[in-house]
Design a protein that fits this description.
Layout: H1 2-22, H2 36-43, H3 45-76, H4 82-90, H5 97-108, H6 120-127, H7 141-167, H8 171-179, H9 184-195, H10 197-212, H11 216-221, H12 231-240, H13 244-275
Helix pairs in contact: 1-13, 2-3, 2-13, 3-7, 3-10, 5-7, 7-10, 8-9, 10-13, 12-13
Length: about 280
């Protein structure tokens, strides 16, 4: 176990301790300032907005991605052309977050009413007689438009995991429920969902962690401007401003937000091992 322990020590434990210590130091890292960096985060409007935006990401993106992925898994399951449909839904997972952001930048692209629109969404608005909208500049809706990109990417992941779980539901249980006179919706809620609940938890926790540390989408599409910044982006922004203490403080806040999800996931894994 020595090589694994050394890798954990060098790659995880020591950097974590250094970051924690740096969060209590000044920008130069040579003076202890206590909790001043954390106070700055939660007393500045920009800092509060950054934390709130991150929480909004983690509340919306995992929930919508899981619901849409589950819907795809149910309706595509055992249909003609199932493999083709699944490939199409899963394709965004093969694209990097930066690539997905560039694609959606074209979807949201804005030009003045006097110009021909190159953005898909604004062209549809113009077709219906409306004026082009600067989607990524209007607060707070611009954050929601950014979240759509993550949902688009992660839905394929949710679909694949949940589809595999649905195929593992014993047919005997479904047949028994059907003999009891239940309809398709009742069988889905009372039989399928409880049977795939471990997979749902895995999907939710995985996408939640991805939402908490999202960086590429925000940095590529808005640079964190117009009230769209999140913690991971602000860590980078503060570090480039030579504010190492504040950057480390944001990292600690992010760690504290991720920690409950990790603990919950670890407990679920332990319970599954005990059942086995």
């Amino acid at each position: 176990m020595t090589p694994a322990a050394l890798l954990l020590l060098i790659g995880l434990i020591l950097p974590s301790i250094q970051t924690f210590v740096a969060s209590f130091m000044n920008a130069a890292g040579n003076k202890f300032v206590g909790i001043d960096n954390f106070v700055w985060i939660f007393t500045q409007p920009e800092g509060i907005r950054t934390v709130v935006n991150t929480i909004v990401w983690v509340l919306i993106a995992p929930t919508v991605s899981t619901i849409v992925g589950l819907a795809y898994a149910v309706f595509i399951d055992k249909t003609r052309g199932e493999k083709v449909y699944k490939v199409l839904v899963f394709m965004p997972m093969a694209i990097s977050f930066v690539g997905a952001s560039i694609i959606w930048n074209f979807v949201y692209a804005y030009r003045g009413p006097e110009f021909t629109q190159i953005g898909l969404l604004n062209q549809i608005v113009v077709w219906f007689g409306g004026d082009p909208v600067q989607w990524l500049l209007n607060e707070p809706w611009n954050t929601l438009f950014l979240i759509v990109v993550l949902i688009w990417v992660q839905t394929g992941f949710a679909m694949v995991i949940l589809s595999a779980a649905i195929k593992g539901v014993p047919t005997e249980q479904l047949e028994a429920a059907q003999l009891d006179g239940t309809n398709a919706w009742q069988r889905f809620i009372n039989v399928t969902v409880p049977a795939i609940s471990p997979a749902i938890i895995v999907v939710l926790t995985t996408i939640s962690i991805a939402s908490l540390k999202v960086f590429d989408i925000v940095r590529t599409m808005t640079g964190g401007n117009f009230g769209t910044s999140v913690i991971a982006n602000e860590m980078y922004t503060q570090f480039t401003k030579f504010e190492a203490g504040r950057s480390a403080a944001f990292a600690v806040v992010l760690f504290l937000l991720v920690l409950p999800i990790v603990i919950y996931n670890a407990r679920q894994i332990r319970k599954q091992k005990e059942i086995r």
